[in-house]
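Hi Y.,

Following your request, here is the sequence exactly as I used it, all 483 residues.
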Amino acid sequence: MSQADIAVIGLAVMGENLVLNMESKGFTVAVYNRTTEKVTKFIEGRGEGKNLVGATSLEELVGSLKRPRKLMIMVKAGKAVDAVIEQLVPLLDKGDIIIDGGNSEFPDSERRTASLTEKGLLYVGSGVSGGEEGALKGPSIMPGGSPEAWPSIQPIFQAISAKADTGEPCCDWVGKGGAGHFVKMVHNGIEYGDMQLICEGYQLMTSLMGLDHSEMHDVFAKWNEGDLDSYLIEITRDIMAVNDEDGSPLVTKILDTAGQKGTGKWTGITALDLGIPLTLIGESVFARCLSAIKEERVEASKVIGGPKPSFDGDKEQFLSDLGDALYGAKLVSYAQGFSLMRAASDQNDWDLNYGNVALMWRGGCIIRSGFLGKIREAFNKNAELPNLLLDDYFRDKIVAAQDGWRRVCSKALEQGVPVPALSSALCYFDGYRTERLPANLLQAQRDYFGAHMYERTDKPRGEFFHTNWTGRGADTASSAYNV
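Below is the corresponding structure, written out as tokens. Let me know if you'd prefer a different format.
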């Protein structure tokens, strides 16, 4: 029996399709699943006649591999990954490579990298994006962990990954420790934002403008040919055209409660930990939470009054404005996401290459879009760019979009249509371009009630002062620090 190039543990949707992708690129793949019947079913079904090696135990799986052994774990994130690693460690030799291809939290990848390094093993925490179709035909892959592992897995990962329109693989080494899973987490957070923005556009077109689904199909199709060209706009266009058995649009039959698996929440929590204003993605997570309390919203709708949306303006102009609003807010989402990656890279000494991250997202993944090519150009031009809004191209684009964006948010607020992501993005944009914010009053308040001190405009940064505001307090001040 020929030895396999790589093993995949876990034959759920992503695992199965990654195996078939690897095999189609000329690699022999060993497969294992905790429920061994699934191995047989796969080998005799979708994998029939292919260069696959089925294993009924981890010992058998490890024994079927070329050295250094490469084993990719595709199981549920968390304790299940640790359990598989614990079983594999005694079976492996120095230099063998364990790869976690699930949506693990990046601190787990940091911990696993350190732990396995102590045992002489190499660890890779790799984000994989693209869903079922991407896994089969070419996903975006974001590997990080032990740098020594990259030369061994690079030929396989770059062969199976999606390719950008330049032909470059949408896969490159991200960085040490948890860098790969961190970048995948931010990808998913941006995905939350993109989806929420599109849904708010949909809500405005239905609740405010009264467009039917055929008209909305045409709007999304038109947007997909311009600056908003992206996978998510494309699939939204297609969703608008699908009818249920009774001829009505299928999307209208779907209950308006959104699920989530945690990566958006993790992105928001990490932003809070690092002090990065990730407002749009945060609002996108909270919008899903609000959607989940369906029964409570139904009761509230019966007793809390508000405007009844109506539209009597120029529809074509409003749709043009809405396209601008989506573009401007989308740019803010990416600007916030890349700012978060920069802060995390600095804190963890990851040395992330932001142009390469944009390239990895150009194909295969859920947020792929033409927009990312411009992001890559911006970071290739200035690797130290602190915020995408300061790049000449994006600065000019967002300034040009703001008038329509403001009109859309104004109309939505006036008519009582919720647009949390569109409006929070606009507030971030205005806050970022404002030289003086009201935080001076906030610091005065903090010093008044807690003696937290403040800096002065007429003194050097880093000097702190306290005022006895009431005349009844003492001169003792709290220490100045930020969490």
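The CA atoms of residues 468 and 475 lie 7 Å apart.

Thanks again,
Q.
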